[in-house]
C-alpha cells in the first residue's frame, strides 16, 4: 500500500492543472485551513480516503473537484471503506446519488454525482433519498458552485493531475463507471490533492496530521 505522501503548504490562489483553482474560503470570512499532499498511485488515493474517513461525522459535506479520471471515485471508495459502509462504492453517474448504510452504527454515506444537476440544493432535495442528509456524510462529485448552500462547513477536495503522469487512476475510474473512458495506464499516476476545511466545523481538525 502506498501510504506515504509528501506534504507541503498549498499555494494561495494558484491555478491547478486542468484549469481548476484552489477552493475559495467563505465570503463571510469564516475560518479555513488548507493542506496539499502528493498521491503517487490509485492505491495511495484509496488509502488517503480511508484516513480521511476517520475525521468524518454525521452532517459533514465533502466536495470533490477534479477533471475526468482525476481519482474522485477512487477517493470516495476509500472513504466508504474507512467508514465501514455497505455496498461497493462506484460512480453514481446514472442514478445521480447512492446511499450506503453503515455496517458499524455510524452515519450512512450519500455519494452524489452532481454533473447533471443544474438546480443545486433544490434538485438535491428532490432526489427523495431514503436518508436524512443532516444525519449522513454527503460526498458530492462535481458539486462546486452547486451544493455549497447545503452548509457553511465543508471539506473541499481538489484533485489535479501532475503534468506528464500516466493514466493509472484514470483507468481505474473508467472501470468504476467514470466518464473518462481512459484506458488503464501505468501504476505511477501522480496526483496533487488539496484539502480545504471551511468553517468552524473544520477549524479544530488537524488535516495535515490526518493525511
UniProtKB/TrEMBL annotation:
<dbReference type="InterPro" id="IPR027417">
    <property type="entry name" value="P-loop_NTPase"/>
</dbReference>
<dbReference type="GO" id="GO:0016740">
    <property type="term" value="F:transferase activity"/>
</dbReference>
<keyword id="KW-0067">ATP-binding</keyword>
<keyword id="KW-0819">tRNA processing</keyword>
<dbReference type="InterPro" id="IPR003442">
    <property type="entry name" value="T6A_TsaE"/>
</dbReference>
<protein>
    <recommendedName>
        <fullName>tRNA threonylcarbamoyladenosine biosynthesis protein TsaE</fullName>
    </recommendedName>
</protein>
<feature type="region of interest" description="Disordered">
    <location>
        <begin position="1"/>
        <end position="33"/>
    </location>
</feature>
<keyword id="KW-0547">Nucleotide-binding</keyword>
<keyword id="KW-0479">Metal-binding</keyword>
<keyword id="KW-0460">Magnesium</keyword>
<keyword id="KW-0963">Cytoplasm</keyword>
<dbReference type="Pfam" id="PF02367">
    <property type="entry name" value="TsaE"/>
</dbReference>
<keyword id="KW-0808">Transferase</keyword>
<comment type="function">
    <text>Required for the formation of a threonylcarbamoyl group on adenosine at position 37 (t(6)A37) in tRNAs that read codons beginning with adenine. Is involved in the transfer of the threonylcarbamoyl moiety of threonylcarbamoyl-AMP (TC-AMP) to the N6 group of A37, together with TsaD and TsaB. TsaE seems to play an indirect role in the t(6)A biosynthesis pathway, possibly in regulating the core enzymatic function of TsaD.</text>
</comment>
<dbReference type="GO" id="GO:0005737">
    <property type="term" value="C:cytoplasm"/>
</dbReference>
<dbReference type="GO" id="GO:0046872">
    <property type="term" value="F:metal ion binding"/>
</dbReference>
<dbReference type="GO" id="GO:0002949">
    <property type="term" value="P:tRNA threonylcarbamoyladenosine modification"/>
</dbReference>
<comment type="similarity">
    <text>Belongs to the TsaE family.</text>
</comment>
<dbReference type="GO" id="GO:0005524">
    <property type="term" value="F:ATP binding"/>
</dbReference>
